[in-house]
Amino acid sequence: xxxxGVSRGVKQYPLCVMRWANHISGGKDAPRTRADCKxxxxxxxxxxxxxxxxxxxxIEHIPDSPLDPGQAKVRVMAxxxxxxxxxxxxxxxxxxxxxxxxxxxxxxxxxDGPSDLVGREVWGTGGDVGFTRDGSHAEFIxxxxxxxxxxxxxxxxxxxxxxxVNFVTAYxxxxxxxxxxxxxxxxxxxxxxxxxxxxxxxxxxxxAKLIAVDRKPFDSQAFEGLKLFGYVxxxxxxxxEAVRQITDGRGVDVVFDCVGGELFEPALSTLGQLGRQIAxxxxxxxxxSFDLLDFYHRRVTLFGVDxxxxxxxxxxxxxxxxxxxxxxxxxxPSRIAKRGRLExxxxxxxxxxxxxxxxxVFTAPPLDK
Length: 369
Fold this sequence. Notes:
By secondary structure, the protein is α/β, with parallel strands linked by helices. The chain has two domains: 179 residues, Alpha-Beta Complex (Quinone Oxidoreductase, Chain A, domain 1); 143 residues, Rossmann fold. The strands form three sheets. Strands 3, 4, 5, 6, 7, 14 and 15 form a seven-stranded mixed sheet that branches. Strands 10-9-8-11-12-13 form a six-stranded parallel sheet, sandwiched between helices. The two termini are 22 Å apart. The N terminus is likely disordered.
């Protein structure tokens, strides 16, 4: 039975069951119990084949499946489109099983499951979500109870949906792997991107000296709220020379490389003694080379971080750790550049595929409409 129970300390939706049903059916005879819901169909983007042209992005009305023990159903109020979501529907990500609802990041309201969770506003992401389990580009998503993470109260749903992949990847690479100390120098390539900007924000909370690297002229608005130690425009300057000048020849302590490919070796060369470099992607070429003698003489450490290795439950715990910093405003969600409904899937996916700046987000009507 669908339970509209009360959960202490969270915003309540005492009529969430009827609102949920009415939103889908549009009728006054909306079902009020799980038994009454038999035969329901819910809206989702679901792919049955991969396609470079994104022609496979179609709305389907699929049967609403009952929950298994230990699960909760979330009404998705907002979900974002990541570059990995685009690659996923194009067949460029390994391990995806079909048919599949894509989408990793989401924010919404628990509408079915244990009574202490129903009504809770939540957010989430996961390396399995949209790949081996159905994702967030739908009206509803089913998640394990252990993955339920309370959304920061000060964030709107669309803002919370723009956090997931970017900040989880940044947190694991920077906090778990590189572990920078106060006053160490942190260089971030692809600094205007979603992960890059998240790394810079996290680095600032650790009192690191921040060097942002991108292939465009400096724009103060792109780094609002950040205190940069230096900036390098790689379309105008060679990275190694520029960094040596900024650091008086000492090099940097940590490189978080959000670009890879041809920038991998130049970024690696900026590291000083005992430097650490994080690799999260391979733009362009997958194979790179570097001076191995120089590498071990500088005692450099290289970390590979793959957010796909983190389950939705793993990510829920990481979001819980970062939630207080979002509530205090120390961390800020990625900027939203484009919004739409599920029916606008090809438009939003194409925006991301073409390198649109900022996040693309699907939004849903309010629960009481």
